[in-house]
Specification:
Helix content: 40-55%
Structural class: alpha+beta
Number of strands: 4
Pfam families: GST_N
Distance between the termini: 28 Å
Enzyme class: transferase
Shape: globular
Largest sheet: 4 strands, mixed
Order of helices and strands: EHEEEHHHHHH
Protein name: glutathione transferase
EC number: 2.5.1.18
Radius of gyration: 18 Å
Strand order of the largest sheet: 2-1-3-4
Strand content: 5-15%
Keywords: Transferase
């Protein structure tokens, strides 16, 4: 049995989607963020990093952390062929699942941090902090994020002009692969109202809406509880 240690408003939502797509039985152990938005200390009892997602596989006596590692683990041991790209698309699948967390998400997180920092600064220094963070965003963060968003949008367009397609071609049954599960969170992050909607290409919004309409995603959403990155 797979136990998902699920933190609200976190990357663990994509693990629930994967499990629902594969039709696997699993349990959810819910954890709630503290008032400072950080994970609770109870997650350190599961894994030394104290982060989510993390799963416990009681059948194999394994604890697995990190989204990419979890996704690969579940597909490898329980997918029965689902979630695997075609031979021709293996390199693309590997690229996108690495790109999601190694390149895309760090820039998204930096953008969100610089948006929040001025609101947390003491009132008398807030104008200075705001000026500095705005300059950093304009010179570095925003152009970098724009490149990554447009690059991802073009990849979807290259496969389907509407964006309603799997980013690495999908598996043999027409379902998502690891690339899609990994790209879900950054795509949800930029389409959840935290960014200017005009800066999000329509193909990415189409992709997110398309995924959100899938029965497996809806089941995962219902079981996962409150999730600010999707409103179904």
């Amino acid at each position: 049995m797979i136990i998902v240690h699920h933190l609200n408003n976190s990357r663990s939502q994509r693990i629930l989607w994967l499990l629902e797509e594969l039709g696997l039985p699993y349990e959810i152990k819910h954890y709630k963020r503290k008032s400072d938005k950080l994970a609770p200390k109870e997650l350190y009892d599961v894994h030394p990093l104290g982060k989510s997602p993390v799963i416990t596989d009681t059948s194999r006596n394994e604890v697995v952390a990190e989204s990419g590692a979890i996704i690969d683990y579940i597909i490898k041991y329980y997918g029965k062929g689902q979630g695997l790209p075609s031979d021709d698309n293996q390199d693309a699948d590997n690229f996108w699942k690495q790109f999601a967390e190694a390149s895309f998400m760090p820039t998204v997180v930096m953008k969100f941090v610089f948006m929040i920092v001025p609101t947390q600064a003491p009132f008398f220094v807030r104008p200075v902090v705001s000026m500095i963070t705005n300059q950093i965003q304009q010179r570095f963060t925003d152009p970098d994020l724009k490149r990554k968003v447009e690059f991802s949008a073009q990849a979807l367009k290259d496969r389907d002009s509407t964006g309603r397609t799997w980013i690495a071609g999908g598996d043999s049954n027409g379902g998502p692969t690891a690339a899609d599960y990994q790209m879900l969170f950054p795509f949800e992050a930029i389409t959840s109202g935290r960014m200017d909607a005009n800066a999000v290409p329509q193909v990415i919004q189409n992709w997110v809406d398309w995924v959100h309409a899938r029965p497996a995603y809806r089941r995962a959403y219902e079981k996962g509880g409150p999730y600010d990155y999707a409103k179904l």
